[in-house]
Design goal:
This protein has 340 residues and is of the alpha/beta class. It has helices at residues 3-13, 27-36, 43-54, 70-73, 83-90, 120-130, 150-169, 188-208, 235-249, 266-277, 292-302, 309-326, 335-339, and strands at residues 19-23, 63-68, 93-97, 102-104, 112-114, 134-141, 173-180, 217-218, 256-259, 285-290. The strands form two sheets. It has an eight-stranded parallel beta sheet with strand order 8-7-6-3-2-1-10-9. The protein has a two-stranded antiparallel sheet with strand order 4-5. α8 (188-208) links the parallel β7 and β8 (217-218). α9 (235-249) packs across α10 (266-277), α10 packs antiparallel against α11 (292-302) and α11 (292-302) runs antiparallel to α12. The chain is globular, with a radius of gyration of 19 Å. The termini are far apart.
C-alpha cells in the first residue's frame, strides 16, 4: 500500500467541478433500463451504450472517473481501444464495482448483507492490472417499522471496512457506500436518525480496521424523506439535514463525499448537491457519483439507435455540466430547461 498514491487518486476523484459517472449497472439492472427503450440487452448493445457515454466530447471537464462493471472493464471502444485505456487517455480515472450484491441477511427478515468478500483480494489484483484505480462496494440499509436492526448496521459496516482494507492493500482507493434507502414512508427526521447510526458505525469500523482516511471516498445517501412519506422535505431542508449529519460523523481527513442519487430525479439530485455546496465552507469536497441522474436523459435520447449517438451524448454532456455547476453551488432549479 502506498499512502501517497491512494491520496493522490482520491484527491483527483474529487477535483474541482468534477464528479463520477456510475456506469456499473449489473446485467440485470441494465436490462431493466434497456427494456424501457425497447432494446435487447446483448453484450454488444451494452458495449455500444457505454461507448456512447464515454466518447461524449469534452466530458473530462466534468467527469473525473467512471465506475465500471466487470463486463465493461474488459470491453473496448468501437475503434478497438480497451475502455480503461481510453478513459485514462482522456484524464478520467477508471474504477470498478466489486461487490456481489445485497442478499437476504439470514434470520433478519427484510434486511440484507452485501456479499463478495470471498476471493476479493485476487480480483483486486486483476482489476488493478486492467487499469482500475478505485473500487466501489454498496451496502443497503432499509427503513421500516422494526428495521434497521443494530446487527444489520454492524454487519454491513464491518463488510464495508473489510472491503476497504483489501482495496488499500492493493493500492486501490475504496469508495465506501452505505446507502440508506429512500423507498419507504419515513420522514426526513427518521432518515437522519438512521443515517446517523449508520455513519457512526461505518467510521468506527473503518478506524478499527486501520483504513487510511485520506485514501478513501465516502458515497452516502442524502438525508431525505421516504418516497411514500406524506410530507416531503424541501430542498433546503434536505441540504441542511444532510450536511448536519455528515459533520457529526465524517472526519475532515476524508478527501471527499460523492453522493449517490438514490432514486431521486436528475433535477432534484443536482439541486440538492448545489444547495449543499452553497452552505459555506465544508471540511471535504462535496461531489456526485450518479448513475441514473446522469444517464436517464441520455439513454432515452439514444434509444439504442446509432443515428442517435450525438443526441444521447448531448444529454449526457448537459447533465454532467449541470452537476459540475452544482459542485460550486451555481446550479439553480430549472437551468436544465435553459440548457436544452
Amino acid at each position: 500500500m502506498s499512502r501517497s498514491d491512494l491520496q493522490s487518486v482520491a484527491t483527483a476523484m474529487v477535483a474541482k467541478d468534477k464528479g463520477l459517472l456510475a456506469a456499473d449497472e449489473s446485467s440485470s439492472t441494465i436490462k431493466k433500463r434497456f427494456d424501457k427503450i425497447g432494446l435487447e440487452s446483448t453484450e454488444e448493445h451494452r458495449r455500444a451504450y457505454r461507448d456512447m457515454l464515454f466518447s461524449s466530447p469534452g466530458i473530462a471537464q466534468w467527469i473525473s472517473g467512471v465506475i465500471l462493471f466487470d463486463e465493461t472493464i474488459r470491453q473496448k471502444t468501437k475503434d478497438g481501444v480497451a475502455f480503461p485505456e481510453y478513459l485514462q487517455k482522456l484524464g478520467i480515472i477508471p474504477g470498478i464495482k466489486v461487490d456481489a450484491g445485497a442478499k437476504p441477511l439470514a434470520a433478519f427478515p427484510d434486511e440484507t448483507i452485501t456479499e463478495g468478500l470471498d476471493g476479493l483480494r485476487e480480483r483486486l489484483v486483476e482489476y488493478y492490472k486492467l487499469g482500475a484505480r478505485f473500487a466501489k462496494w454498496r451496502a443497503v440499509i432499509d427503513i421500516g417499522s422494526a428495521i434497521p436492526t443494530r446487527f444489520a448496521i454492524e454487519s454491513n459496516a464491518q463488510a464495508l471496512a473489510r472491503y476497504a482494507a483489501l482495496c488499500q492493500e492493493q493500492n486501490i482507493v475504496p469508495i465506501v457506500e452505505p446507502e440508506v434507502l429512500m423507498d419507504g414512508s419515513h420522514t426526513i427526521e427518521r432518515c437522519e436518525q438512521v443515517t446517523d447510526a449508520v455513519l457512526a458505525e461505518v467510521f468506527s469500523q473503518l478506524e478499527r480496521q486501520r483504513i487510511v482516511l485520506e485514501g478513501m471516498i465516502l458515497k452516502p445517501n442524502m438525508v431525505i424523506s421516504g418516497k411514500k412519506c406524506s410530507t416531503q422535505a424541501s430542498p433546503d431542508q434536505v441540504a441542511a439535514a444532510t450536511v448536519r449529519c455528515l459533520k457529526r460523523h465524517v472526519p475532515s481527513a476524508v478527501p471527499g463525499i460523492m453522493f449517490l442519487s438514490g432514486g431521486q430525479s436528475a433535477a432534484d439530485a443536482t439541486l440538492h448537491l448545489s444547495l449543499m455546496n452553497k452552505l459555506g465552507s465544508l471540511p471535504w469536497q462535496v461531489s456526485f457519483s450518479y448513475g441514473r441522474a446522469l444517464q436517464d436523459a441520455a439513454l432515452a435520447a439514444w434509444g439504442g439507435k446509432p443515428a442517435n449517438v450525438a443526441a444521447g451524448q448531448k444529454e449526457f454532456q448537459k447533465w454532467s455540466k449541470l452537476n459540475g455547476l452544482a459542485r460550486t453551488g451555481a446550479y439553480k432549479a430549472g437551468m436544465e430547461q435553459q440548457a436544452a
